[in-house]
């Protein structure tokens, strides 16, 4: 039984209150010997929480769900989803929504646990999580935040003192994360699948009030909701593509209504540029490869639009026409966001027309793929090239003459090197460094993880002593595969 304590935090429960049909009251599993592995003190302060308190036994109880404030109403959320294209009923099988925090700025955010034990949605799973995957989510989500890409955030990882059976026995952990909400495309798929029109409408109204209150002034608030989610996801996925991020499992239950990145399972940042890059151990067909991400995003949004059809118009044909019209805007929205980002990465002003930017970008990316060049390193080196020192960039190419021809065309547009350094990161969570950090942390040494976090939390500022965090993996690192952790 979860202890109910007087704690310096208030957890509200608008999701459970507005949508009891999608919330199962539940409690976290008992943690026998909790140990705080890492705490995001800056995020805690942003939330209005005292980091010193979170380090106490009471704070750790909160971070594991074992000690909650009075009137807290923790729930496991119901949702559905297309997983690798196959529809299924799902839910928080190993997660728990503790409640909602209203931070000092007035923003409402979910406090959510992962790895907190089995729930009624667990199916055959054990409801647990291992230290490594939870720390991976912490590292990558905080790196994404520092890169300016909308994301869920990691507040803490707490070791449970227990072991988790996967291919081998691993030390267990609970991740406490924060999000604008955990509403997903899959949430709407669940509501639609029930056939309950009132539930679907209440869910849509809840999403609008939570994320897009401006839509209430629209003649068709539900069409406005669809349009805003499409725009948010187009911008988000363009952001992923621009930094070389591969989500790895873009199921519809992993697409948020808020437009935040969620569920960092088999994810990674691309090394050598290749649109076919896949890091997930279970994505044998490359459905969620780097280059497929925009296509899958539009496919997922089409599933979202299907759920909203009863709300868009009374006449089905009219509703379908409205949805198709909205979905038809996705390619232009995505392309516009990607082009604006690529213009910035190349340091080109608005005076350079879109066709010229597109041609320069396409030619460069083709060269990167053909000559197997590291994506992040090359774009960062272009800042020096814009200042007149192209040798670092040239050294990445086995056939530099072809790059030289591109370079001359690009330099003719007088790229802004300082602006480029503000958008092309020096430091990302390099896969070999993430694995090194996780392996050490599992053994009890969090030093490598803390040093990696220090680098990626300030990704655009080059600093002495961090040189190893700015270079690609050595050839001996080999083929990289990640796992979802369940």
Features:
two-stranded parallel ribbon, globular, 486 residues, single chain, 18 helices, alpha+beta
Task: Describe this entry's structure for a reader.
The chain has 486 residues and is of the alpha+beta class. Among the domains are: 3-179, no CATH class; 185-338, no CATH class. Helices cover 43% and strands 14% of the residues. The chain has 18 helices and 13 strands. The strands form 5 sheets. A 5-stranded antiparallel sheet has the order 3-10-11-9-8, sandwiched between helices. The chain has a two-stranded parallel sheet with strand order 1-4. It is globular, with a radius of gyration of 23 Å. The two termini are 25 Å apart. 49% of the residues are buried. The mean pLDDT is 95.
Topology of helices and strands:
Blueprint: E1 3-5, H1 14-18, E2 23-25, E3 35-39, H2 41-46, H3 51-54, H4 57-64, E4 67-69, E5 75-77, E6 80-83, E7 86-89, E8 95-102, E9 108-114, H5 131-146, E10 153-165, E11 169-179, H6 185-194, H7 197-211, H8 221-243, E12 245-246, E13 268-269, H9 293-312, H10 316-327, H11 330-345, H12 354-370, H13 375-386, H14 391-394, H15 400-411, H16 417-421, H17 431-442, H18 447-456
Parallel strand pairs: 1-4
Antiparallel strand pairs: 2-5, 3-10, 6-7, 8-9, 9-11, 10-11, 12-13
Helix pairs in contact: 5-17, 5-18, 6-7, 6-9, 7-9, 8-9, 8-10, 8-11, 9-10, 12-15, 17-18
